[in-house]
Amino acid sequence: MKIFKDRTSAGKLLAQHLKNTKADLVLAIPRGGVVVGAEIAKQLNLPLDVIITRKIGAPNQPELALGAIDPDGEVVWDDKLVMDVGVKTDQLKDTIRNELDELARRDEVYRQGKESLAVENKTIILVDDGIATGSTTLAAINYLKRHQVKRVILAVPVGSRESMDKIGREIGQMGKVIVLDTPDYFQAVGQFYQQFLPVSDEEVIQLLR
Q: Which CATH architecture has domain 7-208?
């Protein structure tokens, strides 16, 4: 099991694995993914932008992601988990609305009036600081497919085996997955970092500058 010093050092390690990769843009999932993505963008001399997706938490258990929503308002559901929890997606309309509002707020705050970078027909390096359930990553991948990217290269320091298998199938022939570790025991992303401090909106804004 790998333990990373912090998100920046994880980004440096991923950049080494990506140094011969031809790409147009690094897209990071906020907030933690932006720290990793900024280091990759710096090392590879690529522009950095964000793709904001938000998980849809289970009632009374908001940390459990039943799905995730993308910037277009499209939701990707974990059908098995939705069934296991015994909830109907119609019951989550208020949660979806709240997450869409937060997504719009973050988009406005992070971009500071700038337009998002174009993704059509581009090779994208998609980055997060780790993947537990994979919901927000799958939402990002589906968004990029819908917006006709040429290729998606997912680069993450660590991911659960189950989620990485699912994501690998979703990316398929249109890209590839680079993950430095898929440990047998995976409880939370933070357990694989010595330092895993919360990332503020202000830090994200600074990194995007």
A: 3-Layer(aba) Sandwich (3.40)
**pLDDT given for residue 145 in this prediction:** 95
User: What backbone torsions phi and psi does residue 56 show, to the nearest 5 degrees?
Assistant: -100, 105
What CA–CA distance (Å, rounded) separates 97 from 99? Answer: 6
Q: Mean pLDDT across the stretch 84-97?
A: 90
Number of Cβ atoms within 10 Å of the Cβ of 83: 11
Token pair belonging to 196: 């895993």
Q: How far is CA 96 from CA 66, 104, 127, 170, in A?
A: 11, 12, 24, 23
For residues 191 and 49, what is the distance between their CA atoms, to the nearest angstrom?
Answer: 27
Tokens of 123: 């090779």
pTM above 0.85, yes or no: yes
The residue among 36, 4, 29 whose CA lies nearest residue 134 is 29
Domain coordinates in residue numbering, the chain:
7-208
